[in-house]
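Q: What changes when zinc ion is included in the input?
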Amino acid sequence: MKQTIKKYLLLLVSPLLMVGCGSAWSQGERRLINEAAYSRMRVTTIACKADSLLLRTVCSPLTRKHIEAPEFGRLVASMIETVMDPENEGVGIAAPQVGILGRVVVVQRFDKAGTPFEVYVNPEIVARSESVALGPEGCLSVPDRREEVARATEIILRYRDAVTFEPREEVVEGFTAVIFQHEIDHLDGILYIDRL
Ligand code: ZN
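A: The predicted holo structure follows.
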């Protein structure tokens, strides 16, 4: 009898517990993402002191709960809209560039047919080639500047799938590998001008 009551109570209480569980995204992050409502977000730049501090912050890894929340889809849609802005076009963007301190980047895959923009969660570079090449780089967060930066020509990239959260690993080379190095630096608070 006691057991039955316990079970019954648990059934009553569990939906309440679920409602009470907060989102993986903070209130501030949710506000920023939901206000953008799938459209472009303001790009943080070193011209603004508060933005500068944010761009110098090490971002936190995302959990499965983060990517399963509705905010994740909205954030990546907004990041893609932002990086594709014809007025201020880029080839990649990292979450801190739209004010979110989570480890997610959008990279244009110049090594794939149709050069699609793709989303990478918790990306990390696990190995870099010894061979390095100089190439021109710019950054949406560093307005009106372009410099030559030395980057590894080939990397081994590890990340989480943006839909299933499954771990993935792949070899990336050429210009796309440069974009990954630039964007992953952003997640560690590093800007390309630090690498000159
Ligand atoms: Zn950048």
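Observations recorded in class: The radius of gyration is 20 Å.
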